[in-house]
Batch of 4 targets.
Target 1
Amino acid sequence: MNGWLPTLSRSSDPKYRAIADAYAQAINGGQMLPGEKLPAHRLLARKLNVTTGTVSRAYGELERCGMVVARVGDGTYVAEPDADGTRLPRLARPEPERAASLPAASPGASALAAMRHVDLGQNVPMPTDEAALLAQTLRNLSADERLAGELLLYQPEGGRRSHREAGARWLARMGCAVPAERVLVTQGAQHGLACVLRAVLRPGDTIFAEALSYPGIVALARQLRLNLVGVEIDDEGIVPAALERACDVLAPRALFCVPTLHNPTTATLSEARRAAVAEIAVRHNLVVIEDLVPAALLGAPPAPLAARLPEHGIVISSLSKAVAPGLRIGYVQAPQDWVGKILAVIRSDCWMTSPLAAEIAARWIVDGEIDRLIEQQRAQVRVRQAIAAEVLAGWMYRTDPASPHLWLPLAEPWRAAEFSAALRQAGVLVKTADSFVIGRGSAPHAVRLSLGGARTHDALREGLEVLARTLRNGPEGLYSA
């Protein structure tokens, strides 16, 4: 939660409607970002001195209008923007007959903020030919009635043989040369990670992650009641000496890490550190769960940790960052002793991954279309990296030429929360470092800038220019006349 709370003004509207309108305006105005959590019903009811039923009705209205998403047992979250990056003010919208009488925007107001937000926060692939390819693939599939019928039936929990073979080919791109029997098809990397954690760990077990890491591990550790502990990182990634000390003290069961194009810092672990981490893992009987999702963008990624850990290494990958997140296809590679346990979790969790989506992914991988899409994605990354280098010339940030995001440490006197709020007010969304902090450690004053959230090059340039201007003006610029 970002701490924003609605204020109930004196109005003839029902209280639930006033709460819903206030949240809608905050979401449309950027005070609350996609993925941020709304307060629990009881907490907000107590803060506003209303009943929990009133809050429930307000949240229900927001969900009905597509502003928020309720997750059973987890809470209510701000929904993602519309496909074009905008968010229509579905609530608190002026009625057509009154719209003409409303005052025009102030001439000094940001036109960018008035029209829409430029999203530099969400890490998504850049537009390529995937939609046209999907349409053609579906046409080809529709011509094969026998296969279409088979794809509508129950499948093995780990996927059809051909789908697992395609997954093995995908993982081989990242240095994982294993037979299809050790590859399982999942509904994206997050689902794969959830299944692995449930198979490998039990409530109360300790799992390590880099001190800054993929936020999805935090939510899963909380749900599974795991003790998640951050391990020190530096500019090169996880620090082996810190990992050794933590293993001696806490006796962890597993380590989750992103050793290649680390999210969020973009660091890639050196060969020397990979060897050191693998040696520590074997000595402490540590299961290493390796997220290779970002590595798919590299033409020749370094050998994964799992290559050094035949009995301790589990790899998770997906097509989400390099091709299409909506396809929801991921692959898990595990040692043979773990395969059966993970299969059992998949079966109990969802019975099987969608065969239709898995077939589409398999065809793209086997036919080589995936290579074309990834090369287009790399070309987009190069163009957008060049735009960022031009606009942010003179500002120190970290990235990799193949990375779709930048890591921007903030110099004094900026603080991350203050900088993010200033950008939000100006129409630009970013992710602050505290979104990635593991445990209760302090977050550096830094932000992650994703290059793919802006759907056009012009929008990206506009957003980065606003960001550079905000950096230049400093916090005092917020209060100047």
Target 2
Amino acid sequence: MTQAAISEPMADVRDMYMAHRMFRREFRLLPQLVRDVRPGDTERAAIVADHADKICAILDAHHEGEDAVVWPLLLARGGERSETIVPVMEEQHHGIHEALTTVALLFPAWRATAQRGEELASATDVLVDRLVEHMAMEETEILPLAEQYVTAAEWAVFGEHAFSSLPKKTLALGFGMVMYEGDAEVIKEVLANAPFVPRLVMPRLGPRLYASHATRVHGTATPPRLGR
């Protein structure tokens, strides 16, 4: 199906920019969170490790949704431009997954001992560099293609697929993380398409969960905004 053959409303990708803003903020802050834990302070290490587990799970689910839904649609419809850029995206996902795996392997021992934090922080730096590079290219190359070749209904399927594997509490916290720097108009439109109960409770629950979580992790309900 070509762009000319698509008569349905097309994807509104503004929610992806909000998700990227959240990932940039939380992952850029993570290496210093690790470095700030005093050797032997396992109580604080557990707090940071729990936070890392959550944001890594959200990122992994997000990328699984792109792999399963977005890339095949673009390859089928986007012509030479998609055929050039989608393999780059897939390779970057592979590199990010490798970095996530390395970090995941290091966190348990650090959580238990709060020792060798610099090794973990350095591995997290690698993850951040790969993720930031990937999101910048995705915003420049992929999102314009999605606006042309992915319908609004298919974009909704991507969102549902991306987060269907997450526990409800993690999903609610993730939405609160996005809302922290999110565009109010876009948030309203995203919630308008949500089931009744999330649509009703999320505007209050999400920010409340994130404020509590951020206070525990970052020491403040309003951590630095690192949108770009």
Target 3
Amino acid sequence: MKRLIISLTALGALSACSQGMPGATSFFREAGAVVDGGDFGNATMNNTLIQTGQLDYAINLNRRFSAEVPTTINFEFNSTALDEEARAILRQQADWIKQFPEVRFKVYGHTDLVGSTAYNRRLGLRRAQAVVLYFESQGISRSRLEATVSYGETQPLIVTEGRERANRRTVTEVSGFVQNHPTIMNGRYGEVIFREYVNSAVPATTLSGISGSDLSTSN
């Protein structure tokens, strides 16, 4: 009888303890339930990206994107409308994006700190969606534009409780590669990044003086 009481007491204590642990909803859970916080597989995915070269090339391509075109546009207070300045920048982005049909992009929405956190998160998302819709109008496939993301008011460029135009923005970034594209399936990430550099290095007069047979037989 004493053993039974002790066991029940210990079981109750463990159950109560498990309820207070982060990620544990019950003592009677499958093994590993507390260990897995929902991120299982992310490490494997990251290793795959590194080993295949995708991650390094995506980072390098994003650096090139941010160096060659403006990546940020701004909005009026409490607005998702694209003014002419924003449209001009987005056209530059779209022209750059069209050069690389193998590349995917993500648009991040931001707001200033005026208003509630929930409202600003929704506003940031609507701003990102407005950019994606504009890209589609420029002939870019929606399949190359990853799900839009809103940081809301959590990443201000200028920390102030008042209205701040610099914080009301979207940022476009390279997010990866289109996995079903034949170039990418062959692992030719480097060619994607340096393709325009190589083409721009060949003088037009040189290309015009080369016959089609020469091009087909050259290495």
Target 4
Amino acid sequence: MSGETSTRDPVRVLLADDASEMRALLRWALLRDEGVTVVGEASDGTEAVALVAQHLPDVVVLDLQMPGLPPGELLVAMAQAAPGTPIVTFSGFEPELVAPVQARLVTLHIPKTTDLALVRESIVGVARGADGT
């Protein structure tokens, strides 16, 4: 499903962050773009894996520090639940701190200190097949 979204189709995003305030902020930033829809929100790793399998979004925005699964296991489970779906980590936790084979499952890492307009642009870019930068 990844990389196949045309510029006319809405970008389907799954948000996964244990902080409800952060999910609300991301949702607000993403929905400012009429071409984006949020298909689900998860507050822990187990819920995120279930929702990605259920919704098969165009892109997952994932906080690596959530309850439910350790970061490396969470990345592997997400990739197995929806093969080919890009994973954008939006986290204060660097993906390089997980095993290298697991870090390769991350399409793009965005630090939580990044400007929200750039966050939205990067997520949409990844969903549409760009490198997100």
